[in-house]
Structure formats: C-alpha cells, structure tokens
Amino acid sequence: MIFYCRDDKLVLNFQKSDLNSEVYEYKNIVIKKKEKRYGIYSKKAEQDMPIIESLEAISDSQCTRIVIKARYNAVFGLGERFDAVNQAGKDRTVEVIEKFCNQGEFTYCPVPFFFTDSGFGVYIDTLKVCRIRFHDNITIEMEGSLDELPELVFFFGKHDEILMNFSKLTGQVKLPPKWAFGSWVSANRWNNQAEIDKQVALLKEHGFPASVLVIEAWSDEATFYLWNETKYKENDGSKGFSYTDFEFDNDSLWQDPKAMIDKLHKDNIRLVLWQIPAIKKLEEGRVCLQHERDWEYAVKNKLVAFNIDGTPYTIPEGHWFAGSMIPDFTNPETEKWWFEKRQYLLDMGVDGFKTDGGEFIYKDDIVFSDGKTGREMQNGYVKSYVEAYERFIGKDRVLFSRAGYTGQHKCPIQWAGDQESTWDEFRSVIKAGLSIGLSGVPYWSFDIGGFAGPLPSVELYERATQMAVFAPVMQWHSEPVGGQFAEIMPSSEGINDRSPWNIARVYNDEGLIKRLNFHYNLRYNLIPYIYNEAIKSHKSGLPMMRHLALNYPEDKNTYNIEDEFMLGDLLIAPIVHEGQDRREVYLPEGNWIDLWSQKSYQGLKWITSEAYEDRIPVYIKEGSALALNLGDSLKLGSDVGNNINTYENLCFYLAGKQGTTHFEDDRGNDIIITWKDDDINIIRNSGSEPVKILRSLCS
Predict the structure, then answer these.
(1) Is 188:483 a contact under the CB 8 Å cutoff?
(2) Per DSSP, what are the bridge partners of residue 470?
(3) Which residues pair with 650 in a beta bridge?
(4) I need a surface site. Which of 157, 233, 451, 640 has the fewest CB within 10 A?
C-alpha cells in the first residue's frame, strides 16, 4: 500500500506497488514509513504532535482491518445517526437499512466519511458495507483481501476545512429553490382532490402560510405514475403517456389534477408527489392491466435487477414491498423507460418528488446492468435511484429523500424518515440532523411531532414546531389511517394528521392555533436569513444546521452537546424534555443576545435560559445581523403571507454595538452592512430593495 496525491488529495491505495520513499511530504504534514506502518505528523511540530501515531493494514483472504492509532476526543460524520453525534466509543456499520421508528444504531443514510477533533478525516471510497470501531484505536474493517480494498482519502485541518474539502471531492452542493424553505404540509391520508382543496382552505382559514404540499396517496398504488381512478387506454408497457391521454370525471378521486396544480401555484404552493423504486407485486385478487404490461416489458428487456440464476430479483418476504421487482437504474435504458412514464407529471406542473424507500437490497448475489452485485448495491442502489431522479427533475424542482449515501448533498433535500411521536424520538431526530450535517448534507428536515403512533401531546408538538422554525426545512406529516399504530390512534374519527388544527381539535386546545400562528409567521419572517444561509451552504458545502463543534472546534465543551445547534450566527437551544419552561444552555466564545428578551450574556459558560412556555431559547451572536421580512408592525411573528418572492419590509436587525454582515438573495440583492454604534454603512453591490435597520427587536 502507498500514499499518493490525486487531485490535491492525499490518497491511501492498497493495490499500487510500494514505490514511495520512507519520508513523504504533503502540504503541511510529513508521512513517515517504518516497516509496514505509517506515521503522520505536523511539519510545525513533527516530534511532539503526531496527527496519526501509526497506520497499518492487517489482512487475510476474507477481511482487512486498517488500524489507526491516534489521540482524539470526538469523531463526527458517518451519515445520519440517531443515537449519537459524537461517535467516539461507538461501533458503527456503514449500511443502508430501513427501520420503522426508533432507529437507534441504524440509519437510512450512512456516509463512509468521518473526522476527528485531532485534525484528520477519512473518506472510504466504496459502496460496500464496512465497519468502523472508535475505541483506543480507530479500526476500519472491510470485506476482502488487501488488493481488493478501495482507496482511502485523507483530509487534514480544522473541522470546517475537512468538511468543505470532502464536499468538494464528492460534488457541488445543489441549492434548492427558495420556495423549498417555506413550510411544508403533508399527511398520508390525503388521497383525493376534494381533500387537497379542503386542506388549502384550512390553511387559509387558520392563518398558516405554506409553500409546499406533499401528496403521498395520489397514484393508483400499482404503477405509481398514474393518478388514481384515471381512465386511459393501456399501452404495451414500452412507453409513457401524455396528460391528454387521460380522462377524469367528477365522480373520480381526481377530477382535474392539472387544474388543481395550477390553483395551488396561484396560491404560492408547490406540489411534491410520492415515489417508490419498485414494480409492485399487487395484492392477491387485484388486477391492473397496465401494471402487468409494464412488468412483462421490464423483465423481457432486462430493466430490473436479476438473481444470478436469471430470474428477476424480488424483495424478500418480511420487508416493505415484498415480492416487488426493483428497477435497475444502472441501466440507461431503465432510466429512460422509467422517466418517460413520469414526464407528463413534470409537464403538468409537478414541482418535485418525495423519493421514499430504496433500502431494498437484501442479497449479495444480485446482478445489475453495470456489473455490480448486491454487495455493492446494498448501499449503492439508493444512490443510483435518487441520482436518476435528480437528473430527471432538472432545475427549480426538489427531491425529498429518506435514504441516501455518499453524494446525497447533490440531491437535496434529506428527510429523517419515520419516528414515533415521543420525546425520546424528538431528541434522537435532532441528533440525526446534526450528524448528517457533519457528513456533508446541508439541507435536512424531520416530521414535526413525529410521524407514527398516538398523536403527540400538545407540549411535544409545540416544542417540535418551535425547533422546526430554525431547521433547514420545516414540515409536518403523519402516517396513514390504518397504519402500524392504528389501534392506538387517539382520534375517534380516524384522523391522525399532525396539522395544527387537528391537534387543537383532538386536545380541545383553542389557544393552540394562535400560538402556532406566531411560529409559522416567524418562519416566513426568517426566510431572507434562512435562504442567505442556504446560499452559503451551497457555496461552502457546510451544513445550515451546525453542531457547535463545527463553529468552535477548539472548545471541547461543545463536543458532546447534542441538543443545541447553530443556524448561521443564531444559537438554537430546543426544549427537549417534558414539563420544562427553561433549560441549561452552553454559550460558546463571544457575547450573545437573547432574541426574545434582548438580554446580553457573556459566552464560554453555561447559563440557565429565561423561562419560555411559548418559545425556545434562541441567541444571536453580537457583531452579526438578522435579515428579516416583517409586516408593517416590524415585529417578529408578523404576518407576511406565503409569497416568498417579495418582501413586505426587508429589515436587518444589527446585534451588538459593532459588526458586519453580507446578504444575498435570489432577487439580485447583494448588500454589505457594517456598523459601529450609530454609524451604519450600507454598501449595495447589486439590487435596489429598500431596507430598514433595526437596533432592537420586539414580538
């Protein structure tokens, strides 16, 4: 094995001949070889500060272990992890797994990348499952002998430098359209046009702005590309349809979906439709002629994954979509065929897809068109699936994906999947958001108050909503009526929506609507700031929702804080335990201003937050600014509607006596503001939007 440079990255290759010298210099580090081990040192303090004391590979015919001896206190990365952000002391498997609720050590979206607080990171360039143990040594265990192993890419520097360089290596972060940062609404039971009209009317009636509506139960649940109860003439399975090929009538579930989409767009609401990468095995006794023809065509033309005996692979019993075939997206003909059937959806105005599932590879001996087997595609399948959809949708649309792998940041947005409505799950999902951000995926969301089980308590629902205001993407969703927890649903009418009005109705809490109105309005007040942070993530590869250690890598106090996060220069401290109106908050270096009370605090210490029943503690760092869209009252929580393409009043709250801020948006505004006391200087690089300067905030 040797180290060598590739595209300005330090790579450890296990197949190349050992031709390098005993001492190898790379940027500001020195690599020394002694027998079969390597040591990696800082040039500045080579003898005293080894970055990696030793690295060696121990191999037999079945397995290889790469053992890294290094001093470290914290390890971050490895994808979306629900049980811990700091991976030190953990045994981890980098493996895509579908787990319904209470994910624990499992994850829908692993990433074979990690970095330590001691200044190095490692990316394992593989699709295969690997195992990593973070104890006295870091041990990476991979199947195969030494000459079968993938390359390891090493990164050195501060936390943010390592993460930015990893992001550059694996591809440019894709910036979602601005409307994706408004609030999202969804419930699995919405399965007809009248229900969609009703939900939009309820949004308006109760005063909740929304920018995205997700429909899961829209299709025939056979083809997953035809609207349920549409009338059409079947084809031979080789091609798709145009919208004009369909007939809708007033007695069907969807009377005129094209008109519905047009109406949603007029209301500034975008539409996202649910997708699954499966050619479904239909329920016994159910017949769909178009589905049968699609199935036959896919098998005949080898558009699906196959077993080594030449039969189509089907998902094993006991798993979601058992008996279904899976399209082989490594085959260009599959991709062409699959999306020709869905092109009419884009033509009629659909704004994106919720790409659910994909954790469907349960055997090693499956064969794909490009030669890969199940060994690679347990992790690689969802990558091929989501990336195929990303190529299909093009610009200005979104994917909303549960499962993923390396490169998921190119196919935003990541969604945390299925959790129960419990406090434990709420705490876990915050860890998931932080860990996936530390793995290079900047745009992330979760289901407010959980997805499954009994409805959340009012307290949990409010606390989750308050936190979601400051998440990269804010959305609520719920499992279907008749789902896995149907027998314990609290609603006598069988309605388990996590909508604000349904929660208020079930618990007979008349004041809930007004309390939540403030937070939804606050989200839209914050859109200029949130979108500006999204642009920064697009450019840098750093997450929007940041673990404190990313901003303050020298502060060891931050390493194990897993229930606070940064959004730019805002520090968010969610309330994550029942019955609390305040909490202990760690403030890093600097001075901080409570966003609600305007009280100032000195950092580098723990404080007890002020008591808030209807807010969560939020602090802004002195010397920074908050870009806001406010109503004429210029108050936080003022109603500015759901049109994110315009400003009611573009305002900048300047925190502290002096500071500077740089603001960009999608309307051509590029503004730099500097201030010291009352001396405020506004420099417009471009744009002409009027701005208002605020030196204090009220709500």
Answers:
(1) yes
(2) none
(3) 629, 691
(4) 233
Q: What is the pTM of this model?
A: 0.96
* 535 within domain boundaries: no
**Distance, CA of 246 to chain centre:** 35
Task: Tell whether 313 is covered by a domain.
Answer: no
- The enclosing H or E element of 297 equals helix 289-300
Largest CA distance in the chain: 80
For residue 362, give the nearest of 371, 373, 347, 346 by alpha carbon: 373
Statement to judge: residues 491 and 547 lie in one domain:
no
**Distance set, CA 373 to CA 102, 141, 330, 363, 365 (Å):** 30, 20, 11, 9, 6
Q: Band of the pLDDT at 81, cuts 50, 70, 90?
A: very high
Tokens 């995205």 sit at which residue?
212
Give pLDDT, residue 225.
98
For residue 19, the model assigns a pLDDT of 47
What lies within 8 Å, CB to CB, of 69 at 6+ separation is 52, 53, 54, 55, 136, 137, 138
- CATH code of the domain covering residue 83: 2.60.40.1760
CA distances 621 to 320, 378, 588, 675, Å, are 46, 44, 10, 15
**Burial group, residue 510, by CB count within 10 angstroms (0-12, 13-18, 19+):** exposed
Tracing tokens 């609507």 back to the chain, one arrives at 513
User: In the structure, what pLDDT confidence band is assigned to residue 48 with cuts at 50, 70 and 90?
Assistant: low
- Over residues 291-348, the pLDDT tens digits come to 999 999 999 999 999 999 999 999 999 999 999 999 999 999 999 999 999 999 999 9
Model confidence pLDDT, tens digit, residues 246-270:
999 999 999 999 999 999 999 999 9
Are 403 and 364 members of one domain?
A: yes
164 assigned to some structural domain: no
Note down the domain range covering 106: 2-157
Indicate if 281 and 393 belong to the same structural domain.
Answer: yes
Instruction: Give the rounded distance of the alpha carbon of 198 from its chain centre.
Output: 29
- Helix, strand, coil proportions of the chain in percent (round to 5)? 25, 25, 50
Selection from 137, 55, 130, 128 nearest residue 92 by Cα: 130
Per-chain mean pLDDT for the chain: 94
Q: Provide the domain count of the chain.
A: 3
**Is the bond preceding residue 413 a cis peptide, omega within 30 degrees?**
yes
Query: Exposure of 371 by Cβ count < 10 A (0-12 exposed, 13-18 middle, 19+ buried)?
Result: exposed
- Asked whether 270 and 212 are in contact (CB, 8 A), the reply is yes
